[in-house]
From TrEMBL:
Originating organism: Sinorhizobium psoraleae
Keyword Glycoprotein in record: no
Localization per record: Cell membrane
Membrane-related topology note: Multi-pass membrane protein
The protein, known as: cyclic-guanylate-specific phosphodiesterase
Annotated ranges, domain EAL: 262-514
Name of a matching Pfam family: CSS-motif
Superkingdom per UniProt: Bacteria
Sequence intervals crossing the membrane: 6-30, 239-258
Reaction equations catalysed: 3',3'-c-di-GMP + H2O = 5'-phosphoguanylyl(3'->5')guanosine + H(+)
PROSITE patterns: EAL
Keywords per UniProt: c-di-GMP, Cell membrane, Hydrolase, Membrane, Transmembrane, Transmembrane helix
Entry keyword annotation includes Membrane: yes
Amino acid sequence: MNRQRVVIVAVALAVIGAIIPIAAMLYVSWNLAVRAEQDRLELFAERAITRANRSFAEARLVLFTIADSGVEPCSPDHIARMRLAVFDSRAVEEMGYFENRLLRCTSWGVTEGAVEQAGADYVTPDGIAVTIRIQPAVSGGKPMMALHHRNYNVLVDPLRFVDVILDEDITLAIVGANGTLVSALNAPDPALIKSIIAAPRIGIDENNLFAVARRDGWLAIATAPRTGMRKDLRRQQMMLLPVGAFIAAFIVGIVYWLSKKRLSPLGELTLAVQNREFIVHYQPIVALKTHICVGAEALVRWRRPDGSIVRPDLFIPLAEESGLILPITDQVIQAVVSDLGKLLVADRGLHIAINLSVSDLKTGRFLSVIENALDHTGIHNEQIWLEVTERGLMDIESARETITAARARGHMVAIDDFGTGYSSLQYLQGLPLDALKIDKTFIDTVGRDTATSSVTPHIIDMAKTLSLVAVAEGVKTKEQADSLAALGVAFGQGWFFARPLPLEEFIAFYHQSKHQYGASPDVLPRMPAYGMVP
Ligand SMILES: Nc1nc2c(ncn2[C@@H]2O[C@@H]3COP(=O)(O)O[C@H]4[C@@H](O)[C@H](n5cnc6c(=O)[nH]c(N)nc65)O[C@@H]4COP(=O)(O)O[C@H]3[C@H]2O)c(=O)[nH]1
């Protein structure tokens, strides 16, 4: 993923990460507020049922008591008893006595005219016939509920069934066993009540919240306007929104931290290592006397996903500092083997020089990586050279150990950028080396009259004295190449011959050099075949 995409993804994640917790908390607080309001409504609905049961039980008791009294029907004593029973009861408004389904007398007295017994809406399990709505014939007044048992009935004011102390914004409705509305308080919305009777449920619509309770054949419905829960909603939001904001800030912080880390040079390099974005270019090394290509230096390049190539001096220092250089070295070794395995097997005189970092030298782990990579390839260890810089030699003891082990396996070890450090001579004396790469700053002076131009021949002489293969780096002109050859330098590398080349170009260069200058000697330069003066 390139930087732009990382930024886009990070911004998108941060926005989503900020919105989701806040939206979730708004949702949760809304639900909690709705739930709390519905609980409140359910409580009132429950209370209404308790109230209805009490009123019903009281009316039933009156009915059963008088029915069992055995007094002469409609006698003065009977009527007095009925009246007393009505006075004593809070629920019952009137009581009547029927014979042959005709009302003969009530708690008010003997009935004049023919009043027929009303039909029942439903009958309770204990045999009470309930008529939800009748108009009292004797006393007149508002419609009542009638409970009929044997020859008696009692009239109960429907309001007794919802006689509950209510909050102002709540409406209450109580429905009988047959689904008929018995009574209502605070004028609930008839359409809403009708729909809830049809499908009893707890819920919320555009204007109202509602809850129901069902028990003992009653259905109680309590409703309240949605606006009523605002206060509770605000309270929930005050509690939960800070939590949402905190989670949002945390997520945004994490996204910012991760994207910053991902976008940091180290983050990018880490990902590049994981994605194996490293390729190798090869800078030809030629025998100065014959100009035959005898090898190449493997130079790592970071090919970004957008195709751009990053030079090693821009990322090697960070890779060394962070330890990522170790897997990068591994990738270079593997690339060399897969790129040039066939060519190396076909031409035993060809070698590839791999650069080692300070950590590589310290750990020595690259040796087993090379061993595994070369396994079954047919490439000889002698064909893999190792280049170490003076910085890598500073821990001289571990460097000596690693170099000794490498040489024991047959690898050639060269000291790179020779002459640029403070202790080049000390390393030459103290370490078992095979080759010396003379830094380009010295090669630049060849053929010119500068203060340091006399140093270069001394470096070359020293290499001869110590039986080291000398390789001139940064050869830019034919004159330099010729002079160096005349001075006895075996190999040269530089823009005069070729710049670091992508694989195909290097292979083409190699074949072209063979074709032009003849076959390369199929021996490696530890032998005197290259014209090295021992
Ligand atoms: N001005 C001039 N420059 C020339 C000429 N001929 C070659 N060069 C450049 O000199 C550098 C030679 O590699 P180096 O001294 O090992 O220096 C290397 C080496 O220290 C390091 N490096 C490259 N690849 C690797 C690697 O795989 N592992 C490690 N640890 N370091 C590497 O990065 C350094 C820079 O590599 P490059 O940018 O490829 O730069 C290369 C090459 O492009 C010339 O005629 N004139």
